[in-house]
Design a protein that fits this description.
The protein contains six helices and five strands. With about 150 residues, the chain is of the alpha/beta class. The protein has a five-stranded mixed β-sheet, with helices on both faces. The protein is globular, with a radius of gyration of 15 Å. The N and C termini lie close together (about 10 Å). It binds zinc ion (2 copies). The site of one zinc ion (ZN) has 6 residues, from helix 4. One zinc ion binds next to loops. This is Deoxycytidylate deaminase. Its cofactor is Zn(2+). Belongs to the cytidine and deoxycytidylate deaminase family.
Length: about 150
């Protein structure tokens, strides 16, 4: 049985997450259009700064006020930034991410014209929050954002 494109892209996002140098959480993202990949990303500090696992192997990344890595761009941010820098047309694209978008990424996803988001794990569950505000934001404003069911 062949995999669906949804599953292929989510599998790739899952593999990409392993490239992350952040100590706490590894997240991967794939940006596609018409079943073709236009960008990829995983969470991590911008090139030329630090790799958290090399800089702080024991204590982990320095935390921000929400207990997230204070240096890293999120996987979605990195995927969108790369597409922008390389002139890819993000309008109407589909994003696959291993962790549902945080509210800041949700705003960026919405503003960049992405039309559909599939995620594997819930950000709220990971953070112990009561609701997935990023998911709610996207669905409220017309971007379909749903958990991808396994084939
Ligand atoms: Zn980090
Ligand atoms: Zn985010």
């Amino acid at each position: 049985m062949s995999l669906s494109f949804n599953q292929i892209f989510m599998n790739l996002a899952t593999d990409l997450a392993q490239k992350s140098h952040c100590v706490k959480n590894h997240v991967g993202a794939v940006l596609t259009k018409d079943t073709r990949i236009i960008s990829i990303g995983y969470n991590g500090p911008p090139a030329g700064t630090h790799n958290c696992d090399e800089e702080w192997p024991e204590e982990g990344c320095p935390r921000d006020s929400k207990n997230s890595c204070s240096l890293a761009l999120h996987a979605e941010e990195n995927a969108i930034l790369y597409a922008v820098k390389n002139g890819a047309q993000i309008q109407g694209s589909t994003l696959y991410t291993t962790l549902s978008p945080c509210i800041a990424c949700a705003r960026l996803v919405y503003a960049s014209g992405i039309k559909q988001v599939y995620y594997k794990y819930s950000y709220a569950e990971y953070k112990g929050l009561v609701c997935d505000e990023g998911v709610d934001f996207l669905n409220k404003f017309g971007v379909s954002c749903e958990k991808l069911q396994e084939d």
